[in-house]
Amino acid sequence: MENDFETINRLIRTRRSIFPPDYSDQPIPRDVVEAILANANFAPTHRLTQPWRFTVFRENGLVQLADFLAETYRSQTPPAAFSQGKYETTRTKILRSSCVIAINMELHPEKVPEWEELAAVACAVQNMWLTATALNVGAYWSTPGNLDELGEFLNLDPSRKCVGIFYMGYHTAAEKPAIRKPIEEKVTWVE
Question: N or C terminus of the chain: which is more exposed, having fewer CB within 10 Å?
């Protein structure tokens, strides 16, 4: 049996972006999504603002999100630059997912700067990603170019903003090695 260090080390080093073309048709049960989100809730947060907020799209919700993002792309793209392929890909990657989560951030400017809230949200997403990895759920964080419109679609009030979407699905992707330069190239020791 692995000890805690070996387990976390393995999860961190095997976490990858897994994209919808590799997702299977197997649905992610709601309790699995809830477990992934519950671990997001234990991210570090300065002054306990806990700025992470999530909107979960499943089943018919995926169709609504796919239609919105595709139509927003169509309406914002000049006809000469419009690509039917990109339009279809926008819809397909959402509909191929078992679950898509809008990653939202609640701002508390009277308590902490926005960058600290974004750092806390990113830590929450990393917790989600590591949990998904442990459960063999593929995932990746995407930041579409129409985040402002997505925030409107989500009916976010002015104290909140959308910072991306998190695609998830059980997958058949083969393991890939991480591509990282050695840590020694990124650390300066002062002793």
Answer: C
